[in-house]
């Protein structure tokens, strides 16, 4: 399945398109982050999304929120599919998972994540049958539930989770993508994969098939000062782990989230960008 690259159509004889695009990107930035806490309120978690510098719409969805049992949920979804399908798939996935996880306190975070993703897959597949334009829609997903210094993570597609610990940033998830499979098999080097025209081809996602395999849930212990980072490829293709670590070392979570968006846009911002952060106290 392809994460097709959408190219901004700007005619040289229509300079107003750049102006309109800038206004739309700025509006989308404020609209998708309107529920953030005031700047003077200390936070342990924060999420932010931005359409980037070249996309007219934002197909990403992200959230961080408290669950009924006191756990924290982080989620990033990066929709794929033409005619607005990607926006629908990621929005339906976020809505379905949040609804499932907020019904009642969770007995087992790992099982709760698996069940929520399976339900979201069913929802997206059912919605795709209602409109011919949506039949190829799907979305990546990376989500985490954090409770008492433990994090449970699940991912499908190529959105990622990273851990910032003692100054280092390490990946906690593996991409479900064609190039990642080629790297793991030894057919491609990391450098070759970064230049591949197929780096946006995912091999698994919410809504790709009628059923979804979500048996793998990663458990990670968090200690004081650790930061869990969930992001779409719009961030990590533009901002290195070293830059992420430097940003998290220097700033509190809200300021760090905003800075990471700025860094991705400064590097060209070719895609939608989403980040969800949690700092362990």
Explain the overall architecture.
The chain is an alpha+beta fold and 281 residues long. The chain has one domain: Phosphatase 2c, domain 1, CATH 3.60.40.10. Helix content is 34%, strand content 23%. It is built from eight helices and eleven strands. Strands 2, 3, 4, 5, 6 and 9 form a six-stranded antiparallel beta sheet that branches. A five-stranded antiparallel beta sheet has the order 1-11-10-7-8. β7 and β8 form a beta hairpin. α2 packs antiparallel against α3 and α7 runs antiparallel to α8. The longest helix has 20 residues. It is globular and about 50 Å long. The relative contact order is 0.18. The N terminus is likely disordered.
């Amino acid at each position: 399945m392809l994460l097709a690259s959408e190219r901004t159509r700007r005619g040289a004889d229509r300079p107003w398109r750049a102006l309109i695009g800038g206004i739309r990107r700025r509006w989308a930035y404020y609209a998708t982050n309107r529920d953030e806490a005031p700047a003077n309120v200390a936070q342990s978690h924060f999420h932010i999304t931005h359409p980037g510098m070249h996309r007219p719409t934002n197909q990403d969805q992200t959230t961080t929120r408290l669950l009924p049992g006191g756990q924290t949920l982080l989620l990033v979804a990066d929709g794929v599919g033409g005619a607005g399908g990607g926006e629908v798939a990621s929005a339906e996935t976020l809505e379905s998972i949040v609804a499932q996880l907020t019904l009642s306190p969770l007995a087992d975070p790992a099982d709760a994540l698996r069940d929520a993703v399976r339900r979201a897959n069913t929802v997206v597949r059912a919605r795709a049958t209602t409109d011919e334009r949506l039949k190829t829609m799907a979305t990546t997903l990376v989500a985490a539930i954090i409770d008492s210094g433990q994090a449970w993570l699940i991912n499908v597609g190529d959105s990622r989770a990273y851990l910032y610990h003692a100054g280092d940033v390490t990946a906690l998830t593996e991409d479900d993508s064609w190039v990642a499979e080629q790297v793991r098999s030894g057919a491609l080097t990391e450098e070759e994969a970064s230049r591949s025209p197929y780096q946006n081809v995912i091999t698994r996602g919410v809504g790709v098939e009628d059923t979804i395999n979500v048996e793998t849930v990663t458990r990670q212990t968090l200690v004081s000062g650790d930061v869990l980072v969930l992001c779409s490829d719009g961030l990590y293709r533009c901002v290195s782990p070293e830059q992420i670590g430097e940003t998290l070392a220097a700033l509190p979570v809200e300021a760090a989230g905003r800075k990471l968006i700025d860094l991705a846009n400064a590097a060209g911002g070719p895609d939608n960008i989403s980040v969800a952060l949690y700092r362990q106290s």
